[in-house]
Amino acid sequence: MEIKITKNQHPAEKPKDESKLGFGLKYTDHMFIMDYTAGEGWHDARIVPFEDLHIHPAAVVLHYAAEVFEGLKAYRTADGEVQMFRPIENIRRMNNSAERLCLPTLDENDAMQALTTFVELEKDWVPHTEGTSLYLRPFMFATEANLGLHTIKEAMFCIIASPSGSYYAEGINPVKIMIETHDVRAVRGGTGYAKCGGNYAASNRAGERAEALGFSQVLWLDGVYQKYIEEVGSMNVMFKIDGKIYTPDLIGTVLPGITRKSIIELLKDEGYEVIEKRISVEEVITALENGTLEEAWGCGTAAVVSPIGELAYDGKEYVINDNKIGSLTQHLYDELTAIQWGKAEDKHNWTVKVK
Ligand SMILES: *Cc1c(COP(=O)(O)O)cnc(C)c1O
User: For the chain: N or C, fewer Cβ within 10 A?
Assistant: First the structure.
């Protein structure tokens, strides 16, 4: 695939104080764009100066939410190199999401080339401080002007990037999570497994209510019985009960996290028994009450792992591991981040170096 590059003639200054980067506040000098037209396929791959997009007010995405996205990071290693973590997994998941929403899919090699060419060009934007990274956000949406519901004929694929601060600048503190018993995020046959903006829009209300009550996120239950554990906000969830690790199985309602998948592989390497199954909320509450629930954590690209210190259900609050990060949660964080930042040997070949 040919990518036409138009360099930004007025590049911005890189942030001097990397402790104030935050998340998703600042963007790099360029963006990748490619257009899709039915019958023609993807065309006009280009990297251009970062700027506003112009889309028609009747663009399908603005009315019918035909949008999917991805999130991954580029890390700077101790010797100054830049690497991405399992980018092919993000590309494959984006295609699965796109397929679910009837958006066009991408050729895997072209998408990989788009990512690596873009990151190569923006390499100097990968911050240097411990724990920081360049967050990459590929996304795709339907652009044609059409208020009638038809097959999607025009779409756009973009990649933007945002230098991000350390998620745990103040140390890894356990979070308070509320089990949501009213709203649901996904149902079987729906879009739960797709990374699409619509899932987030539907989640906002519960998230805001939980926040107003002092919780950081909600833990979703299944959409039919409201009885089985699904996932936390934008993270998958895992429990250590009586020495074994439990996580909800992927039956179409849960987002198949790449962090989830990587942690399962690391746990199995270390001889842990990992059980992927339907987990009822009663099972978790029973384990909390009889003291067998040792640790609980969320996992996702942004935080890597996020220990759960308190869980609220049905008006009761339960404390986990004295509201401290558990030793396995800490170990998983250390192990995975060591691979991502190039401090440990990458036995699984998960990282991809950028020139
Ligand atoms: C992205 C996401 C995750 C985590 O996936 P990773 O690939 O590990 O970052 C979990 N749940 C939801 C709803 C997500 O959107």
Answer: C
Dihedral sign, Cα of residue 267, residue 273, residue 279, residue 282: negative
Ligand 1 lined by 198 (C-beta under 6 Å): no
pTM of the full structure? 0.97
How is residue 231 written in tokens? 């996932």
CA of 257 to the centre of ligand 1 (A): 5
Closest among 144, 145, 125, 142 to 134, alpha carbons compared: 125
Query: Ligand 1 center to residue 13 CA distance, Å?
Result: 31
Q: Tell which one of 236, 332, 337 to mutate to probe ligand 1, the residue whose CB is within 8 A of the most ligand atoms.
A: 236
Q: 300 with 85: CB under 8 angstroms?
A: no
Alpha helix (H) ranges present in 174-326?
Answer: 197-212, 258-269, 281-289
Strands 229-232 and 217-221: antiparallel
Positive/negative CA dihedral, 295, 296, 300, 301:
negative
Residues 6+ apart with CB under 8 A from 145: 56, 57, 58, 59
How long, in residues, is the chain? 355
Residue type, 262: S
Parallel, antiparallel, or unpaired for β 351-354 and 82-85?
A: antiparallel
Average pLDDT, the chain: 96
Under DSSP, is residue 11 helix (H, G, I), strand (E, B) or coil?
coil
pLDDT digits (tens, 9 = 90+) for 6-43: 999 999 999 888 888 888 889 999 999 999 999 999 99
Give the tens place of pLDDT for each residue, 244-273.
999 999 999 999 999 999 999 999 999 999
